[in-house]
Amino acid sequence: MQGAEHLGELLDEAPPAVSLDEAVALAREHFGLVATARPLTGERDRNFQLTDAAGAVYVLKVVHPAEPPAVTDFQSRALMHVAAADPELATPRVVPPRGAGGGDVVWRVQGRSDRRVRCLTYLAGRPLHLTERSPAQRRRLGAFLARLDRALAGFRHPAEDHDLLWDLKKAARVRGLLAEIADAGRRGLPERALDRFARHVLPILPSLRVQVVHNDFNPHNVLASAEADDEIAGVIDFGDMVRAPLIQDLATAAAYQVTGDGHPLQGVAEMAQAFHQVLPLADEEIAVLPELVATRLALTIAISSWRAARHPDNAPYILRNQAAAWTGLGRLDALDRDAAVTFLREAIAKDQLP
Prior knowledge:
It is built from eleven helices and ten strands. By secondary structure, the protein is an alpha+beta fold. It has two domains: about 15-120, Phosphorylase Kinase, domain 1, CATH 3.30.200; about 125-350, Alpha-Beta Complex (Aminoglycoside 3'-phosphotransferase, Chain: A, domain 2). The mean pLDDT is about 90.
């Protein structure tokens, strides 16, 4: 297992530039698409939205050269598995490259590192962070995530255990990154979350069911429909997938649903109850959910604080989610552990939350 600092350096390594003309040429040569291109944002890859003459839209991804080929293959094959297991679930579809081989497209340019190129269908919708949150939206998020995890169940791949900085089950290793938070009192909040993770969660993780999970079901990766904020139009960005305890996927998603008023776990409970209706949770999974949610918030604070210190010019963007993480973690820190688990157990057992 690599250290957090090393994995963070890979995350910070900027991908080589790709011009619009190069993107258009790659789409035509390797995928048979005659299309216009415009750049899209991406954390690690160079991404482009392609639109052909008929109005069909795609996403061309020029993969970061630091990503192992097996991990790229892992993502593509997972998407193909989901499409076969639940054809009605709104996820990107893999556009196969031209040629009989059907393998990875490798782009070779003299003087540059080889890069792999992928093409996916484009999902239309509004990023969830631009919508109005509601109990109905959280319930539909929970049900959608459960369907996705049910579709991924049974999928295996040689790269499923790749090392990932955002892997919640390995959160203990980010403790050193918290040194970038100068205020010891403030730093104590994520440190306590990591302490509780080590004490209450780590010992039982090996006994929990595991599978490949999305691992990044956040409001920037989930789309709402154009018509209604509480209608889920799909999920994108499978780049953080990993084999992990199933409950890790729900905890990662629920960390963005810690409510600012009322009971801190009300939003988490709404999502978890809907998830449970589709894919029932075991009692031992529910018992670690509050601490896993808090650990995900601590992970967000640790990684973003470390990256912002390394890149002060880009700190506002890197820290865009940190205020909510601090607020949510502060609210969870004040909860009694047994009371938090009881609240979730009772809420999840209800037929429908208010």
